[in-house]
Amino acid sequence: MSEPGSLFSSVEDCHIEYTPRPWDTEAFGCKSAEILKVQLSSKRECNALALENVFKHSGAQFLYGRFSANDRKIKEFLCSHGFSIYETALDLSLPRLQDQSIPLFLVKRNIQVRIAEKKDMAEILEKGSQMFSYSRFHESPLVSVENANRRISIWLNHLIDTHESCLVYSQEERVVAFIFYSVDGQRPDTVRLVLGGTLPGYELYSPYFWASFVQYFKNQGVRKLLTRISAANEGVANLYFKLGFQLVRTLFDYQYVSPVAKQ
Amino acid sequence: MTIRELVIEVLKQVIVERERQVPDLLDSMPLSETGLDSLGFAVLVARLEDQLGFDPFLNLNNPIFPRTVGELVETYESPREH
User: Which of A63, A46, A64 has the alpha carbon at shortest distance from A9?
Assistant: First the structure.
């Protein structure tokens, strides 16, 4: 299935699906686009021309895309055209949540989480962009930390504007941890954890907050949780595995900046 | 062994188990700089509960969040009423 609004560059049997990324263009100050799918031809010249057409038609100076770490052909194709791998992402799944026991030492703390209110959103927006060190852009030497934070800020704005659901843990009326999530339209018992953060200074307590978030979903009858994390975020990876999540997919993030944009 | 010595000893154990170098654990050192990750911290608290018989973070109306090694030790030396 294609992403709404996505575009195609096709040369014979090579098809590249891509989409402009206005947020990233705004955050990074150069025209950005994401490659979503690649179907390679056996003819190298077709593949090269299809990629060239993506650059030409999108006008993108910054192009990137996430693909399976096991896809050797895409790796060879993108790396031979100047792309480099700057981040590894892990897709995690916690199936059969109703049958899972969340480790007692993480949930016995009586941490009460709740649905975020309007006043929480303003606080999340104010502090949220400073909470992240891991993302495909935070980990990329092609993107400054300031621009990566700006991109998070735009994302948070979008999540709030679109009324994405959010859970928070607050202490003394201050948001200490939050998690935005979406419910799968086709399968309402499946929840995707989209973006979560913990207030600086409280990171060591994330397991208690996250276990409480998971417990909340379990109490709500959710059957499956999905999320994506950076493999470099070892602490969070260990935490999710401890909570019962399983690794279902490993993805490499490929990025390319045109020489014009580097200047 | 005093409570302080036990807390420091278990903290060192958990840091080593997570394949990190143990730094000089000065009281002023932020816990986040000790090599302890967030899950390691939860393991530390659970292990200290096994040894000391109490968890100073449990069931508090207002949860406490020590940020430094010294504050962590103090939390165990002078636990608040539950």
Answer: A46
Spatial separation of the C-alpha atoms in residues A151 and A129, rounded to whole Å: 8
How many residue contacts between A and B have a Cβ separation below 8 Å?
Answer: 49
In what order do the strands lie in the sheet containing A114-115?
A7-11, A14-20, A32-39, A62-68, A246-257, A84-94, A224-230, A190-198, A174-183, A165-171, A114-115
Q: What does the alpha-carbon distance between residue B66 and residue A132 come to, in Å, rounded to a whole number?
A: 21
In this predicted complex, what is the ipTM? 0.82
Mark which residues 29-48 of B lie under 8 Å from A by CB: 31-32, 36-43, 45-46
B41 CB neighbours in chain A (<8 A) are 204-205, 207
Output the CA torsion A171→A177→A182→A183 (10° steps): -60
pTM of this prediction exceeds 0.80: yes
Question: pLDDT digit string (tens) for A81-94?
Answer: 999 999 999 999 99
Cβ contact A15:A2 at 8 Å: no
